[in-house]
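Hi R.,

Here's the chain you asked about this morning:
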Amino acid sequence: MTINLRKALLPVAAAVCVAAGAQELTRTELAIRDIERAMALMDASWDKTMIGSKTNLYMADRYNTATGDVSGPSDIWPLTAAVEAHCSLLQAMQLAEDFDKDLYDANFDKYRERLDILIDNLEYYRGTYRLNSYATSNKESSPYAVPRASRRGEANVTGILNVYDDQMWLSRELIRAYEITGSENYLELATYLADYVLDGWDCWRDENGEEYGGITWGPGYNSKHACSNAPIIQPLVWLSEIYKDTGATLRFAFRDETNIVRSEERDRSTHYLDFAMKVYDWQMDHLYDDRSGVFWDMMGADGKIVTYRGYRKHVDCGGPVGNFYSYNTGTMIAGAADLYRVTGEARFRTNLATMCRGALNKFATLKRNLKAYDFKTDETAENGFNTWFNNVLIRGYAYALPYCDNNSASNGLNGIQITLDYAFDNHNRDNMLPIHLVNGWGNETVTKPFHQFAFASEYSMLAVRYLTDAQTGGVDSVTADAEEAPSDVVYSLSGVALGRLGEVEHALARGLYIVGGEKRILGN
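And here is the predicted structure, written out as tokens:
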């Protein structure tokens, strides 16, 4: 039994605005253009930064747009961005088949083959070792390493050379690949990685018999990170739906209230949904900053691994530390959206609205010249990962859109549509974009395919948004969007939602805007 993620993604998205600069296009036309631009970005990166043969392929870590020089192979995490972009594009193409069959027929198989090639070449990052975890001892495990090996299946995955978040990103994309292709091998691998990750849950009990909880960054780390917990929530919800009513079980090891190791047979569907909520609750309890509505990076520790009778022992991590990164909130937004969709629990929807608003305030700025939100990124493309982090937040907004009780999700999506288009129209360098979408390349010549595939994925998810809206009969007029808006929401004349009047009025350039369906002069 399977679920159809491309239909479950946006059940209702009836208040979507067509972006400024593209107001002459219907949603369907804009979606097709977004798909075409995603293909252009992906083809450029495939041609310039994918090195080797079909059976021995790697992605370069950097590409110099001036000289054509490339670096050595990327780690597994950036390569996952290429897998994600192909899943997103194929998902958009499946929806587009009803509107532009020629585009689908001419391109779907090409990108499906590339997806298969990418997943096949992940084997150069895979290895096998013996793992001692909180409730399992000397267990043979075959996860993916951070660096690439020269031979398939022979990567060094010991110690700090494999991390749980890498397995989470891959499990997510393998589920999507399964939904797109129907390949049971992809589902089997996604399930294996999810089980491997949950083995890293700190199931030791405190003096009250409560689990400490949380998943460490990896088997070789003590620190518990937002990025080693929240990314698994959405895949677990999906797996719960896939295995529902199948009768599939697994044997799971844990510690009881007295810290004795036990194991029991569990229904897979129930097990995965229970853990999705446990991980979500742990992150809300330990890493959520209620002042900003976003999440701390981690709970730090000294890096020492303590063992007890062949098992890993709990180590106190202290309180939250580090920075706020957009992806750590994006994964929680996506997780909350899917948990609300399948459980109907009001707390997920309430949290969703707060997180969506907090993320927009923290990670984006309103560009007065474009009347759109622009997401903050790094100083240069070679330093930092915020461009991809923002992609995770954007896809979170896409999942949140039907349930977000304020305009933050739609404002974020409209912002990335406008800024991507601005960069594509003004700063396009052989179908590669700068990380500063509005300001351009400056003196930079180096980019990362990591970033380019993130942009392509964003374009594809925007297309999914518009096409889902078109299929569900959503409003196809920016005027109607403005007229139906709450009375305190400010729209540009082209129909872009800018935010609530009290939040954005101070940043607006003087001019005509729509508030509550009426034109008003606002700004300085």
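One quick note: The longest strand covers residues 249-255.

Cheers,
M.
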